[in-house]
Design goal:
Blueprint (H helix, E strand, L loop, with lengths): L12 E6 L6 H17 L4 E3 L25 H13 L2 E10 L7 E8 L5 E6 L5 E6 L2 E6 L13 E4 L2 E5 L8 H9 L4 E3 L6 H19 L2 E4 L3 E3 L5 E3 L2 E4 L5 E5 L4 E6 L2 H10 L9
Length: 283
């Protein structure tokens, strides 16, 4: 693994921020800022917000009212200003970005801001959560595709102080081919901002994240939503940071808060040399 000479820190500190977002954008942004301040004060050079951090309404269609043109809007302005003020890189889990010509859908866009407040990268969610879940309360239907546009398949990476970052969102974690493509492009850190349901989270969240870390010998940064949201949806929380061996370095299980850990990139480089699984792939 090539240690990025642009960002020479060998053991950068990163943070996964856990939120219980509701349907009031200013309140959610205030919470996000408070957690970002805490992360910066604790030494994080990069912090990741969960999916739907700025708005989680009772209906998926409610987010249409908060759609922003890419590059401008209250949510994006907040992210740029906060990154610049705190001098911290921010991964904005998902921002509702307007789709040209389709007023009924938005892009779920994961945006990356550097410490100068510049948006350096954008990933639009590819895999949409269209499922039926059997729970103790009965059948629950989820149809993200009604109000979210599915993006064209592509693997998006960007250089950061914590390593080369590969982007994804929530349901993407069930599709290992995306993460294999990200690692093939040189990713050493994978981010999975999420709003995993309590039902699926308790069964699959940790095991999927650890699998993505192990098979790609990458660190995984996974910030999540937690608790009950408008409309009665319950999310799992358990925001965590995982190392390339699959060890959970930090986990914030319940309530709002932060999972914080240092990433030993030299140890990752040694692992990739001594256990060169990525070189054993057969195309």
């Amino acid at each position: 693994m090539d240690i990025n000479t642009e960002f020479p820190t060998i053991k950068p500190c990163v943070a996964a921020l856990q939120m219980n977002s509701g349907d009031d954008v200013p309140t959610n942004l205030e919470t996000a800022r408070r957690l970002l301040v805490q992360a910066a004060q604790q030494g994080a050079c990069l912090a990741a917000l969960p999916e739907n951090f700025a708005f989680a309404g009772a209906r998926e269609s409610a987010k249409l009212a908060h759609a922003e043109t890419f590059g401008t809007g209250p949510i994006q302005d907040f992210l740029a200003q906060t990154a610049r003020q705190l001098k911290i890189w921010i991964i904005a889990g998902s921002v509702p970005v307007a789709v040209d010509g389709d007023p009924d859908r938005v892009w779920a866009a994961c945006l990356v801001y550097d410490a100068q407040g510049q948006c350096l990268s954008r990933y639009d969610k590819i895999h949409l959560f269209d499922v039926q879940l059997e729970t103790e309360k009965g059948t629950q239907d989820y149809r993200e595709s009604k109000n979210i546009a599915a993006a064209t398949w592509r693997a998006v990476t960007v250089n950061t102080p914590a390593g080369k970052l590969g982007l994804s969102i929530c349901y993407d974690v069930r599709f290992p081919e995306l993460y294999r493509a990200l690692s093939a492009k040189g990713a050493t850190l994978l981010c999975v901002p999420a709003a995993f349901t309590e039902n699926t989270g308790s069964a699959h969240w940790e095991v999927l994240l650890r699998a993505r870390a192990i098979e790609n010998q990458c660190f995984v940064l996974a910030p999540g939503q937690v608790g009950t949201h408008p409309g009665g949806r319950n999310t799992w929380g358990h925001s965590m940071i995982i190392d390339p061996w699959g060890t959970v370095l930090a986990c914030h299980e319940k309530g709002e808060g932060i999972a914080l850990a240092g990433l030993d990139r030299q140890k990752q480089a040694t692992l990739r040399t001594s256990f060169p699984v990525l070189n054993h792939r057969v195309n």
